[in-house]
Write a structure and sequence with these properties.
Two copies of one chain form a homodimer. Chain A contains four helices and eleven strands. Chain A is α/β, with parallel strands linked by helices. The first copy, chain A, has a single domain, classed as 3-Layer(aba) Sandwich (Dihydrofolate Reductase, subunit A), CATH 3.40.430.10. Chain A has an eight-stranded mixed beta sheet. In chain A, strands 2-9 form a two-stranded antiparallel sheet. Chain A starts with 5 loop residues before the first strand and ends in a 14-residue tail after the last strand. Chains A and B meet through β7, β8, β10 and β11 of A and β7, β8, β10 and β11 of B. β8 of chain A pairs antiparallel with β10 of chain B, so a sheet runs across the interface.
């Protein structure tokens, strides 16, 4: 059986923002079309565990009137700096993220879905824990907001797997961890 | 005859950087392969005019030992806040960028190639002057550096035209100005 993978599945504007400064994500609706969910259904069938940062969790909670919809489908972890009592079917976790991922991967199950935001992505990239990146680029320049990639991490290379242009203008990119990851100088590129 | 278009043709890392903080762009070489220039030759055949920001111009000059190679092929403009005497076959321009683009577009010729950096891109986006975006996403997370999209601009939508995945991992995205550009709420998406 192949190892469970940690997959970042997220949308950003062409200029790299996942939300406005005041956490508005209503602009994502520009690609909303009946019958098109950009592979999300298929993707969610491959995962059973969900991790999200505490701030992003609270943004979602506000939008969903205090109910956390993902908890009905997945085992959910919220990464938080503070210790916090579980709520809404969610487990709060304030330990080392690499220990959590290792623990989940040791258990049997499907893949792990990471939904952001920027701080948890930075943390996971720093520990080289993301196995796949599925990034949907929205056909919009937001101009300002909260960035997916906060900066301040180490350099690493990726393997590009696919890019799909949808009618709505959404372009979905897929990358996997570069097996020969490390410094660019060390990289021998397969042809 | 169709109007001359202003085309941003640029590379960035997946995390949105066009150079390191100290202007290193040697990491771009991870996609260098004999016989593959990602459509650059074809693209340059469609342009005869080149504009670049003053800071980026100086970065290029340092790399090319004081000679500016683009000046041999194109009519080159460097946008600068200061008045400056022309050099290396380059015209320095410190007026309003919209006046420059209007002037060039009134003259007969091919398309206009914009090569960055972040500040000129921001200026051109603010004035809604970019007709096409050809953005090559390098298969690398740089972690830090100078961003292509600096933020602080207005929101606008784009039309996604194409995405091509190359063997090296470079993914080239193409967008055009959204003809119904403006607020997202005004957007009626063609199906």
């Amino acid at each position: 059986m192949s190892e469970r993978k940690l997959i970042l599945y997220i949308s950003m504007s062409l200029d790299g923002f996942i939300a406005t400064k005041d956490d508005d994500i209503s602009w994502l609706s520009i690609v909303e079309h009946t019958g098109e969910n950009y592979g999300y259904t298929k993707f969610t069938e491959t995962v059973d565990t969900y991790i999200i940062g505490r701030k992003t969790y609270e943004v979602v909670l506000k939008l969903t009137n205090g109910k956390f919809p993902q908890a009905e489908r997945f085992k959910c972890y919220v990464l938080s700096r503070q210790k916090r009592k579980d709520e809404n079917g969610i487990t709060f976790y304030n330990g080392k993220v690499e220990d959590l991922i290792q623990k989940i991967k040791k258990e049997k199950g499907k893949n792990i879905y990471c939904d952001g935001g920027g701080q948890i992505v930075k943390l996971l990239m720093e520990k080289n824990l993301i196995d796949e990146y599925i990034i949907s680029i929205m056909p919009i320049v937001l101009g300002d907001g909260k960035r997916l990639f906060l900066g301040g991490t180490e350099r690493f290379t990726l393997q590009a797997k696919a890019a799909e242009v949808y009618k709505s203008g959404l372009i979905q990119l897929r990358y996997t961890r570069e097996e020969m990851s490390g410094l660019v100088d060390d990289l021998t590129q397969p042809e």
